[in-house]
Amino acid sequence: MAERKKVLLRLDPAVHDALARWASDELRSTNAQIEFVLRRALTDAGRMPRDAGRIRGPGRPRADEDE
What we know:
Blueprint: H1 13-25, H2 30-44
Helix pairs in contact: 1-2
């Protein structure tokens, strides 16, 4: 798997809190929720790169699942 990019992101505190609550509801980290929302926006706009890797599903990985 390719190395993940690190990005500094400045958000309005209310937006961050809303994302964190949404992420918690879906058993994701806030970071994973941001990626989920960005990927959905890219797909909806027809701009998702074909070579983009898959995003892991919500929740904890199974013990027998490869990382």
